[in-house]
Structures are given as C-alpha cells and as structure tokens.
C-alpha cells in the first residue's frame, strides 16, 4: 500500500482533475485514514479530529467521508462500518477488500474479471447492480505466522 504522503498527493491531483475542492478538513480526514493500519470508524475519526478542531461534529466527518468516497479516495468497509484509504484512486473499476480479522489490515485487489462476471450474471437475471462490495475476511500472512508459532 502507498504511504500517506503519496496518497495525499494522488488525492490532490484527483480533486484537481475533477474540479472538486479538497478542503483542509477533507484532507485531514483522508490523512488520518491513510495513516491508520486498518479501517477507522467515523466516530474514531471524529474523536481524533475534535482534538484539533473543537467545532468538529458528526456531520463534519460524514460530509468529508461522503466526499472522499465520491472522489474514489476512500472505501467503506461494509462489514466493519469503517473506512480505508484507496491506494489507487485512478482505478475506475470495482475492487475487492481482503480484511484480516486479527490485526485489521486491509488490502485492496482489482480483479476486474470477477466484477465483470458478477455484473454479467446479474444482468442476465434482469438485475441492475448499483453498487458492489466484495469483502474477504481471513488472516494475513503475519497473523497466520504468529498463530503457527504459538502452537
């Protein structure tokens, strides 16, 4: 995964290309998410932001998150109700998330053929996909190794 500095530069470029305002609050929320090792929940973000901006309230966070998601800079982890930075916002296709149930590490995959197959099958059944979320829960290499050494 890219470091937070790289992700912030990508975000600035992405917003410039789309003519979107990358405000200081939006930038800070993305910075907090990008520097986390796993996903962050909205209220965790609010607690962190409130330490820097006393006026921060839930709508502040949710508006920033909505913007970051719209710009493709952040993904919502549905199963955890948390948010993770997108390492490649220029990738316009679907994605899949690998989530470690031990440490919370999240990796993003881009298996476009998987998404295309699902879309095609849904269309064949007369179903129009509006949003697709594929999350795979398991254990990362580090957690598997730690578990095997504990035995």
From TrEMBL:
Subcellular location: Cytoplasm
Keyword presence, Cytoplasm: yes
Keyword line: Cytoplasm, DNA-binding, Iron, Metal-binding, Repressor, Transcription, Transcription regulation, Zinc
Keyword Transcription regulation: yes
InterPro entries for the chain: FUR (IPR002481), Fur_C (IPR043135), WH-like_DNA-bd_sf (IPR036388), WH_DNA-bd_sf (IPR036390)
Record CDD domains: Fur_like
Matching PANTHER family: ZINC UPTAKE REGULATION PROTEIN (PTHR33202)
Subunit and partners: Homodimer.
Family to which the UniProt record says this protein belongs: Belongs to the Fur family.
Name of the molecule in the record: Ferric uptake regulation protein
Organism annotation: Billgrantia campisalis
Gene for this chain: fur
């Amino acid at each position: 995964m890219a470091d937070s500095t790289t992700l912030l530069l990508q975000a600035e470029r992405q917003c410039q290309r789309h003519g979107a305002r990358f405000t200081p609050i939006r930038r800070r929320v993305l910075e907090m998410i990008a520097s986390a090792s796993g996903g962050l929940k909205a209220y965790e973000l609010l607690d962190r932001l409130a330490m820097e901006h006393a006026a921060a309230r839930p709508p502040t966070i949710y508006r920033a998150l909505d913007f970051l998601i719209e710009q493709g800079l952040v993904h919502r982890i549905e199963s955890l109700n948390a948010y993770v930075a997108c390492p490649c916002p220029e990738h316009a296709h679907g994605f899949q998330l690998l989530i470690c149930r031990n440490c919370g590490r999240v990796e993003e995959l881009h298996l476009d053929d998987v998404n295309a197959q699902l879309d095609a099958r849904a269309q064949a059944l007369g179903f129009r996909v509006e949003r697709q979320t594929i999350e795979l829960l398991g254990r990362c290499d580090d957690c598997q190794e730690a578990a095997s050494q504990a035995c």
